[in-house]
Amino acid sequence: MNNFVFQNPTKIIFGQGTVSQLGKEAAAYGNKALLVYGGGSIKRTGLYDQVLAQLKEHNIEVFELPGVEPNPRLTTVHKGIDICRANGIGFILAVGGGSVIDAAKGIAAGVPYEGDVWDFYVRKAVAQSALPIGTVLTLSATGSEMNGGSVVTHWEENLKLAHLSIHTYPKFSILDPTLTFTVPADQTAYGSVDMMSHVFEQYFSHTADTPLQERLCESILRTVIENAPIAIAKPDDYAARANLMLCGTYALNGGMISVGVTNDWASHGIEHELSAIYDIPHGAGLSIVFPNWMKYVYRERIERFVQYAVRVWDVDPTGKTDDEIALAGIQATRDFFTRIGAPATLSEVGIGDDRLGEMAAKAVRYEPLGQFKKLTKEDVEQIYRMSL
Amino acid sequence: MNNFVFQNPTKIIFGQGTVSQLGKEAAAYGNKALLVYGGGSIKRTGLYDQVLAQLKEHNIEVFELPGVEPNPRLTTVHKGIDICRANGIGFILAVGGGSVIDAAKGIAAGVPYEGDVWDFYVRKAVAQSALPIGTVLTLSATGSEMNGGSVVTHWEENLKLAHLSIHTYPKFSILDPTLTFTVPADQTAYGSVDMMSHVFEQYFSHTADTPLQERLCESILRTVIENAPIAIAKPDDYAARANLMLCGTYALNGGMISVGVTNDWASHGIEHELSAIYDIPHGAGLSIVFPNWMKYVYRERIERFVQYAVRVWDVDPTGKTDDEIALAGIQATRDFFTRIGAPATLSEVGIGDDRLGEMAAKAVRYEPLGQFKKLTKEDVEQIYRMSL
What we know:
Two copies of one chain form a homodimer. Chain A is α/β, with parallel strands linked by helices and about 400 residues long. Chain A is built from 15 helices and eight strands. In chain A, the strands form two sheets. The first copy, chain A, has a six-stranded parallel beta sheet with strand order 1-8-5-4-2-3, with helices on both faces. In chain A, a hairpin with a 4-residue loop joins strand 6 and strand 7.
């Protein structure tokens, strides 16, 4: 186990009906809020009206930034920063999924910063402060509701980059599983792939002597595998939605499940290049890429992949070689993603082989990509080719 | 899953050599600290000198409260409060195990309170604030380093009571596994029983639809079961000590592993009456009581005990009745406690049957005890009798 520092101050308010606590929580952060949301589904479901009523009841003046994209764009973040500065807004309320929350984090960190907030994403500067953020989650996937990470896309430059900061942990997040009843099957599947992928990035590691962390990871994986198909078949199954929501949050809440473990994050880097150019859903990209990454790297520490196959997928090891067991676990992953309706190949989402080299070069822009196996441009291009 | 609120702001600084970060962390909370510690083992190991050097280097004036008892007493807490008030001390540093940290929490909550701090423990008042607390942990057991709970004993009245508050979460806790290398075998065993017992209190529940929480609990239990015997056999095994330390912290860190789950806590109540009168180590008392509580209540939800036996102890269910499987898991628990050197009967720790009725009456003073099965005075007395 490596030495580590862990702190996660976010307050989670979880369960049916908890939006009724929004106004009281928000009121602790001043009387002006920027309400950040996406494409308008919160208006169709009535959540928008509920949120406004809560804020009004607590005398909070509301400014709005609607239209945050599924891969949130820097231009949108800039727009939010401008609104906050022009109106002296001191609190950001994100109502939506990970993209909306990530945009809110960009805005929150950007307002008090003199330069361009993009500096944080290209590693030119480190955020020293941020406006307080609250969230109402409507999609189980990214864990952004309980961590300090955000991913923003610079569309003109086809760059999709991440920023982590202790200052952008939400002060509070309201997690009501019933708000995810209306999430369609494909997005439920992509969200499930996303949370499993977050666990994979923390689980496939060379760090020794981490039995508890490994089991915490396996616990989340098994629970997602059980509950995602139920939520897809029966969208208003409260238990399945609640279990998925908790899994999504715990899968990436500041590293609680992988304290002292060297993480990988190569597959996320590989995927980000895809959605930075082709604007595909993040979870769909991960579904395509991750099993191929697994096949490409599993011999780096085959015993971890054997453990994964046996403990997560109940692969019977009797009479099998380690290679066979590991590959059976990887195949089970692919089959599961297919079973819940997530894509397996780039061609399924309309991506050909014409820009693979360009994407591979960008994926390794800062350094070899990942930790489990440090990937070169050639490695990344090979994983793209396996994904065609 | 029940609705829940979860927040745990404690900053954990984990790993070998992390005491070197103490001064910097402490300096954020002013220039006067009350150093709280126990029987002097920190002087023998050199930790005391290290701590003083850290505080001195950051110009923090140190006042001392040594001699905190293994079951910390209200008189000691009062003494600490007096020292803080007389000297305008604004920060409490606990260096020790759970007892020392619990005493520090009592002091921290008591200083700003006008009445007697005991009011919080007898539920006459609720803490509205507390001085900031930092800890350096020297014993893996209670989880007090990352939660807001404290247990204090009113020796003259033979009362051992708990107080929970969001205000008494430590601001930071330094967890260096090498500081536990000198913990003797018996205390390592009692600490392991204590952390397992904390998990039991959260795991044996009637709350439905909590698959992730159950697996998180099982993950900790299996990891303690693997690592406690190693740490006892080889006290300076870093991996085993680190794994135990992380298990102890995660087992009771504000309920992270049991969010939305109704907890029980009857066995702790039953044990507290024992150590309030006989001053036995808490973990030793739990080792005696818990398997008997299990035997007494397992039919309330036998399937949870079956799951426990199969998943935690690898009991082979083939050809067995549910009763046989559940009892095999309970017996495995008892055998494990015995194997690591923890007691199985009250007579082993010199306790007879003369005050069982008195203790049972006190255990149910506020209400029927526990949630999994709500225990009456007669139930509690029966569990004491099974423990003779």
